[in-house]
Amino acid sequence: MVNPKRGLVLGATALVLTTAAVAGAGLLSQSQALMGDSPKELVDEVWQIINRQYVDATFNGEDWRSIRSEYLDRTYSDKEEAYGAIREMLERLEDPYTRFMNPDEFQSMQIDTSGELTGVGIQIAKDEETDRLIVVSPIEDSPAFEAGILAKDIIMEIDGLDTEGMDVNDAVKLIRGEEGTEVTLTIKRGSQEIDYPISRARIEIHPVRARLESSPIGPVGFIRLNQFSANAAGEMREAIEDFENQNVEGYILDLRSNPGGLLYSSIEIARMWMDNGKIVSTVNRRGTVDEEAANNRALTDKPLVILVDGGSASASEILSGALQDNDRAVLVGTKTFGKGLVQSVRGLGDGSGLAVTIAKYLTPSGRDINEEGIPPDVVLELSEEERKELQRDRTRLGTPDDPQYVKALDILTQEVRVRQGEMPDVQVNAIPEASPN
C-alpha cells in the first residue's frame, strides 16, 4: 500500500535543473490509464483536481464552476492550446506553487533518487513585489553556487531576456539546457545588477554532509543538510549514529540555504532528535487537521543548535519549527524563507503533470509561518562580503571562518556546560540581537 504522505512536496520552488524541478514528485494519478487523449478532457481533468483538492475553497474568490464552463466551451485544435488554457486557468488562483507541467517538464521534475542531475542548480520562485523571479537558494556544489548566486537575488534577465512578468515554468525552460552549454543570468542584488555566465553541468547531490569537530567542550557533530530528498533521512540517521558512537558532546545542524523537499523526510528527521511532542499539523480547506508527532525513537538527546537563514524553506522550516517549539534546539542565524504550504504532484492522462497546493502546515505551537518565516532565537546577520566568502570557499562552512557557526558553537558550549553543571542555566532563547548602548 502506498503512503500518500510520501508524495507530498514541500520544496519552496521549481528547481532549475535539466532533469528535475522539484524533489520527490509523487501521487501519480490513476487517470493516466483512464483519461482519453482529448485536449478538452485534459483541461477538465485539471479543473476536477483543483476542484477537489485545492487548499482555498473560495478559489481566490473566483467562480470555479463558471471557469469550467468557460474553458470547456472552447475548441482546442491541439494539446499546446490546451496547455496554454490550463496555465491561464491556474493563473486565476494567483498561487505560484500550483502549476501545470507539460510532459517534458513533468519528466524533468522527477529526480532520480540517486541524487544525480544536470543543470545550473538554483531554486526560484515568483517575487510578487517586483513581478520577477527570486532565487530561494543555490544548491551547494552546483554551478550557480560556485558562480556566487545568493538567496534572495532577483533575476532581471536570462540571456538578455527581461524576466518581468515571466512565469516560473518559462524561466525553467530558458535556464535549462545541455551539459556544457552556458546561460547568463542578470542578477539584481541591492542596487547593483551583475551578469553571471554559468555553465550547465552534471550535479551529484548528497543531502547530508557530516564531520567531527573539536571544541573546548570536546567533540561536536557538525551536520549540513542540503535538501530533504528521499534519501535524506537515511543519511541523517547514519550521521547521528556514527557521532553517537564517537561520544560527541552535542550537535550543530546546518539548514542554511536548504530549500526543502519531501514532507515525510522532515518528519522522519525530526523524530531522530525528539522523543515526544508534536512535529507538525497540516490543515486542508475543510479544516481537517493531520498531526504528526515524535514516536519515542530519538537517536540522541544531546544539545542541538540549528543554523538557519533566508534560504531555509518549507521542510527546513517544519524541522526547525518543530525543534524550536519543543525547546529541543536553539536556532541561530537569520529569519527563514516563509513557505507554509504543501503540494501534491500528480501525473495527468497524457504524461503531463500538475502540482497542487492542498494544505498549509502549522508548527507545534500553531504558528502559520507562510510569508512570515521563523525568527531564530539568536540573530546573527552575515555581511555581504562574509556571505560571498563562504560561497566562494565552501570549506569554510562550519569553521572559525564562518561567523554563524562560531556563534552556534558558543551557544552549544553554554548548553553543554549547563548540562554538565559547570555554569548556571542561561536563557539562550532570549539572547538579544544587540545590546543597547
Description:
This protein is of the alpha+beta class. The protein has a domain at 208-342 and 358-428: 2-enoyl-CoA Hydratase, Chain A, domain 1 (Alpha-Beta Complex), CATH 3.90.226.10. 28% of the residues lie in helices and 25% in strands. It contains twelve helices and 20 strands. It has helices spanning 31-34, 39-53, 64-72, 79-91, 103-109, 143-147, 168-175, 232-245, 263-273, 315-325, 384-392, 403-419, and strands spanning 8-9, 14-17, 99-101, 116-127, 132-138, 154-158, 161-162, 182-189, 192-199, 201-204, 208-213, 220-225, 250-254, 278-283, 289-293, 304-308, 330-333, 341-347, 353-362, 378-379. The strands form three sheets. Strands 2, 4, 5, 6, 7, 8, 9 and 10 form an eight-stranded antiparallel beta sheet that branches. Strands 1, 3, 14, 15, 18 and 19 form a six-stranded antiparallel beta sheet that branches. A six-stranded mixed beta sheet has the order 11-12-13-16-17-20, sandwiched between helices. Helix 2 (39-53) packs antiparallel against helix 3, helix 2 runs parallel beside helix 4 and helix 9 (263-273) packs parallel to helix 10 (315-325). The longest helix is centred in the last third of the chain and has 17 residues, at 403-419. The N and C termini lie far apart (62 Å). Mean pLDDT is 85; it is low at 1-6, 12-36 and 429-437.
